[in-house]
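Shipment paperwork, digital attachment
Item: protein structure file
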Amino acid sequence: MPTQHTKTEILVGAFMMLGIVALGYLSISIGGLQLVAPDRYVLKARFASVGDLKQGAPIRLAGVKVGQVVDVRLKDYLAETELAVSRSVTLPKDTVASIRSEGLLGDTYVSLSPGGSLENLRAGALVTRTEPAIDLSDLLARYAFDKPSQPATGAPQGATKQDDLFSEPQP
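Attachment content:
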């Protein structure tokens, strides 16, 4: 017959086990570890530039996550990515893969825009239509330094005060 002391030990042990199981579940779910692999197929896409795209980045179709980036590597002077897409999503052969950013300084992801082809991409296929990442610092530099200046009153574009001093008078 269990004593009062033994009942308390059993309850504390059960509570501790429940806490350890809850802690393990939270660790796995927050860490993104999946015990059962999702049913996905892999596609490849080559980009001139992937920007800050990393392994594990989401793949979105109409804003909904449909997969993740498995690998990013250099191949033939292009960035080749492996994209794991959910089997429930069928993509036409003329699908466009673009690298986008979540907001101005957000993480990068791959956006898929399906085309109108009647044939679908199969596992291992190459997405041939791609759009590279937009480099914001490059855009800012172009805007800041390459913007043509407005000519001064009636002066030809590109003319300076020094050119006016040494040019011949025009009739």
